[in-house]
Design a protein that fits this description.
Radius of gyration: 27 Å
Shape: elongated
Strand content: 15-25%
Number of helices: 4
Distance between the termini: 74 Å
Structural class: alpha+beta
Largest sheet: 4 strands, antiparallel
Length: 168
């Protein structure tokens, strides 16, 4: 190297090292920020506080642990209901494509929330629900059929119950 290029090479070398160190620090800070945002934006259902939370649809206090329901949007907004029929009536007027979680109470296990899309539904006039639609949900088709044998009524899947309530 010539005597002129050595100083230029040194300046270049120092600049590149400093720049890369800063870039590594910036990259690390950016990565940590993304991880924190991802973890903090996790969409999870909130527990229903029976006796104090209100139904988003009818505004009644949610007290019945066998018929409550809720849905959560992709942004994490919670909507809680005192009955499955209130949630379905609410959904009949909404675009459901931005909803990520649908939950219903398991009639056989009061207070336990189950995936509404895999639940089995029973409409039986022998099982009263808060809004009078006689609609209950079960964690399995077997449990729904056992209850149907005792109480009568009709069994529905998620798609069939949505169709009945005209949910899009």
């Amino acid at each position: 190297m010539s005597t002129i290029s050595k100083p230029l090479y040194s300046i270049y070398s120092i600049f590149v090292r400093r720049y890369l160190k800063k870039m590594n620090k910036l990259t690390l800070v950016f990565f940590i920020a993304i991880v924190i945002l991802t973890v903090s934006c996790k969409v999870e259902p909130e527990k229903i506080n029976f006796g104090s939370d209100s139904c988003h649809f009818c505004k009644m206090t949610i007290v019945d642990q066998q018929h409550a329901s809720q849905y959560i949007t992709g942004k994490g907004k919670q909507f809680k209901f005192d009955s499955i029929e209130c949630m379905l009536n609410e959904l009949s007027d909404k675009d459901t494509s931005n909803i990520t979680i649908f939950l219903v109470s398991d009639y056989s296990n009061p207070g336990s929330m189950i995936n509404a899309q895999t639940a089995t539904y029973l409409i039986s006039t022998e099982i009263k629900s808060p809004m009078g639609a006689f609609l209950s949900s079960f964690s399995s088709e077997k449990l729904a059929k056992e209850t149907q044998q005792k109480m009568g009524g009709d069994i529905y899947s998620w798609s069939a119950i949505k169709e009945k309530y005209e949910v899009k």
